[in-house]
Amino acid sequence: MIHAYIGLGSNLENPMAQLDCAISTLKNHDDLHNVRISSIYGSKPVGPQDQPDYINAVATFDTHLSPIDLLDLLQSIEQSQRRVRERHWGPRTLDLDLLLYGQETIALPRLTVPHPFMLERGFVIKPLSDLAPDMLLTNGNTVTEQLQQLDTSDLVFIKEE
After folding, report:
1. One of 20, 95, 134, 151 is an active-site residue; which one?
2. Alpha helix segments (H runs only) across the chain
3. How many domains does the chain have?
4. Cβ neighbours of 87 (radius 10 Å)
5. Which domain range does residue 133 map to?
6. What is the pLDDT along the chain (161 residues), one digit of tens a residue?
7. Is 97 a catalytic residue?
8. CATH number, domain containing residue 12
9. Catalytic status, residue 82
10. Among the options 20, 36, 87, 97, which is catalytic?
11. Coiled coil located at which positions (predicted)?
12. Whether pTM exceeds 0.90
């Protein structure tokens, strides 16, 4: 079994309902075990600012799925919730990003793990700290140490899962 972490985000079509649906799907999927969810936070969008604020969380679980099979599963969940890819960093009903897949480093055309931007995003590191504050990241920092280096002033606690 591999221990994986994914980021969840939404800013369209009732974002809380979108995250709740995705969380339910993850918790009830036969290939995902011991699913845990961070608290949920609100944040300003990355990229174009002409869109609603996001809500974000991180999920962790154990799986036998390969990285690509897991990516396919995440993208199928996004599609089932009407994800449309209109522009880079644009608004979305649901965004599920594979952040970490065990200790593996993956560089494929469809998938880069660890997620290339996770270390600089407070809306990823803060919820990750809810689940694994002492986990060592690829830059040598713990999640807590990385969080201390980020500006998280735009993060708003929404609810505990």
Report:
1. 95
2. 15-28, 67-80, 122-131, 143-148
3. 1
4. 11
5. 2-159
6. 999 999 999 999 899 999 999 999 999 999 999 999 999 999 999 877 788 999 999 999 999 999 999 999 999 999 998 756 665 566 788 999 999 999 999 999 999 999 999 999 999 999 999 999 999 999 999 999 999 999 999 999 999 98
7. yes
8. 3.30.70.560
9. no
10. 97
11. none
12. yes
